[in-house]
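Subject: for your reference before the review

Hello V.,

The reviewers asked for a structural picture of the protein, and I figured it would be easier to keep everything in one thread rather than splitting it across files. Below is the amino acid sequence we used in the manuscript, unchanged from the supplementary table.
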Amino acid sequence: MFSVITRFALLVFLAFFAAFLGLQFIGPVTGISVGIAVLSIPLIYSYINLARLRKHAIANTVENMSLPSGYWEEIFFRLQRLVRNLKQEMRTIERQHNRFIEAFQASPNGIVMLDDQDQIEWCNAIAERFFGLNFKRDVLQRINFLIRRPEFVHYLYKRQFEEPLLLERMGPAANLSLMLQAFPFGDKRNLLLIQDVTDLQKADAMRRDFVANVSHEMRTPITVLMGFLETMQSLDLDKAQQNQYFDMMMSQAQRMKSLVEDLLTLANLEANTLPAPMQLVKISTLMALLKNDAEALSQGRHTFNFDLSSTANLMGEEREILSAFGNLVSNAIRYTPDIASISADWRLNERGEGEFSVTDTGPGIASEHLSRLTERFYRVDRSRSRDTGGTGLGLAIVKHIANRHQAQLIIESTPGKGSTFTLRFPKERIANSVD
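And here is what came back from the structure prediction:
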């Protein structure tokens, strides 16, 4: 402050001194003009610097302007340093903000920020997809105007956010199950977190169906066995009737044994997610075993044609390959009427992939069933499957074995004409050696 007063006093002194000299040697008018000129020079210089400052302030380039000399140099230097620091802080905050936004956008869960009026302040792309929102269009819109599900509106109205809310049939295709929960934060604001639990819901439904199906499948043979045992305990049966009942009981016990074995096989396959080992599997040996088992199961009711179109072998787990091939053949036998033909073929296609196909001339399968055939216990005709002794797990086992060998299960069927089940193995699983 003292420096400012000193400079101002010196300027006034110089102006009066110049005016005094002008009055003494030149004249009163000239003297006064000289004094005014001395006062005008710093004013003009200050105006020029202020004009330069205004220009750079409008262009937002204050930190880049050149420094003047004199008293204005310190002012401009301090102003430039202040502007640089503020811009650096703004850039830092902007980078942090962008990182937070990128992190929220990368989240697999939907995120919606609501103000104290339940208006949308921000949402990520996942939330947009879940609820059909558009942030640029729907910002500051009340979310209950956009998501009008009664349970969601009631959830917001009650303000009891301790428990999550499950919304079914959401998403663009109305096929998603979303778990939503609100978390209060800040000044009466809420953060909505939305998780896609569709797969969890499906897995839980599959688990319930699996338990129900296993219970149902086991209950029937157990009921039959108990009925026969009670009959034999309460009635005096002759030897022929006892033998008949024993045979029927053995059939039901065998059915339970097959079911348990298939369940254990499926459990082992599901527990082992590693690729199958690269061990040589001789296809000619497998085909011979398959033919013998098929003829024993058919008991002369079908005509078989087992063909080796290629002598190439497979690399994989022999026990699993035999199980997969055997399930395809046994399914064809069980679901193909008597006096019909069944063919099995091993070949290499034009891309060098190995293909094992089983073709029957049975009743065929309608197209709406094809995508579900590999589900556990799924049957096109439930009563017929039981009559033929199927457990409903064969194709599920085939699918898991195919996955372990990087293979594909391809099902083609025409109602009234028959079906073809093909296991296609990649070239990497085809052995270079031949039998």
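For the response letter, the relevant points are probably these. The longest strand covers residues 176-185. Residues 198-234 form the longest helix (37 residues).

Happy to draft the paragraph if you're swamped.

O.
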